[in-house]
């Protein structure tokens, strides 16, 4: 059996000594051997810095990116010429429960294809990619994909 391992490094410094309202939420994470630094914070709703990415956004980005990469692989294997892809993804986190969590992630990619491409085939490939996406399969949140296919 082959096992893939993924590592990151995260660091924060400061003090929680002044209580919940006072400590800094800003931190950073590195991946890819330290070459890809990401500035992070808590979401603004949790007293974070709105100019930095937060863990909730990273989770949505991971689902969106995984769908893209799975789809591009499926399209390439099927001989479909995809020339553009954009996704405005959104997650929902109800806060009226004792343990809030992301319950739904909606991916809404616009897939640009070469003229003459079979749009139904592209939608089928999007579904296949969704079934193959490691991130979506790893989450308890409902991840949906609603593609729009357009000719370039």
Write out the strand line-up for the largest beta sheet, numbering strands in chain order.
1-2-3
Strand content: 25-35%
Q: What's the number of extended β-strand segments?
A: 9
Q: How does the major sheet shape up?
A: 3 strands, antiparallel
Order of helices and strands: EEEHEEEEHHEE
Low-confidence stretches: none
Structural class: alpha/beta
Question: So how many helices?
Answer: 3
Q: How many structural domains in the coordinates? A: 2
The CATH class of the largest domain, by name, is Alpha Beta
Give me the CATH superfamily of the largest domain: K homology (KH) domain
Q: Please, what is the average pLDDT?
A: 92
Q: What features would you describe in this structure?
A:
The protein is α/β, with parallel strands linked by helices. The protein folds into 2 domains: 9-46, no CATH class; 55-151, GMP Synthetase, Chain A, domain 3, CATH 3.30.300. The chain has helices at residues 55-78, 119-132, 134-138, and strands at residues 9-11, 27-31, 36-40, 82-87, 90-92, 104-107, 109-113, 142-145, 148-151. It has a 3-stranded antiparallel sheet, with no helix packed on it. A 3-stranded mixed sheet has the order 4-7-9, with helices on one face. Helix 1 packs across helix 2. The longest helix is centred in the middle third of the chain and has 24 residues, at 55-78. The protein is elongated. The termini are far apart.
Keywords:
152 residues, 28% helix, 9 strands, 3 helices, alpha/beta, 26% strand, 3-stranded antiparallel sheet, GMP Synthetase, Chain A, domain 3, 3-stranded mixed sheet
